[in-house]
Amino acid sequence: MKNVKTEGIITKAVGGNYYVAVADGVLCCNARGVFRKEKISPCAGDNVVVSIEENAVPLIVEIKERKNHIIRPPLANLDCALLVTSAVDPVPNTLVTDKLISIFESKHIEPVIVITKQDLRECEDFAGIYRKCGFKVFYMDNSTGNGIDAIRSYISGKLSALIGNSGVGKSSLMNHLFPGLERSTGDISKKLGRGRHTTRQAELFAIDGGYIADTPGFSTVEVSRYGFIPKNELQYSFREFSEYLGKCRFRDCVHLKESGCAVTEALREGKINSSRYDSYVKMCEEAERLNEWEFKNK
Q: Where do the CP-type G domain residues begin and end (predicted)?
């Protein structure tokens, strides 16, 4: 058998083994050592070229250019991130949601809000904050699966990822998308008020011409693992600020305490949600502290 090359997408990476979906199945592959030298790690979502030879393990020889990439969990080429939040246990956390939205906006990945467990509590106020900003919001009842058809229709043909705190219902959502998958669901730790992690690594599942990645859950303090946005760039990751940027009195305005700020004026007029703006202020404070820490350790 001569050397044959084929293209596919990595659906799972475990250790040094990469599972690549190709036209006629799935190949378990190794990767060329040159990727390590170039400090490139193949990951789920990567579009790759695989070399196949007789009596040899298939080898990933090329990684196509990525349109985006997140490091933890390693995922590439996402079209959208389904930010899963629970109506109760744990209750919705606007700061966590806003941090995730900003990170994915900065990477040109469309954030979508999915509220689970709505059989336990209504969350229209929470949902309304994000609908007003132009984000899609879906509901899903964990026990009945009501609402799953709208989610399935939206992700059709896309590369999506489920993102959220442990215990918010990602595994239940996956079980409704893929009956028979029997994804383990995590109980909520009564002591900590957060779920137990039930997914170990990111893995892509084929669905309606696209893929969806189930990712490991995280605790609230781990949100920053998805990425970091410098303070002076945060304003660009809040889409409701966009029509006011460039209209402030000072060109270097960061929309905190400056006079003549168009963003804070819009806030006072009720055109920008106060909860979202509060998140922006807290994120600026955190970014400033992290910048100082990095500077001191250079």
A: 67-221
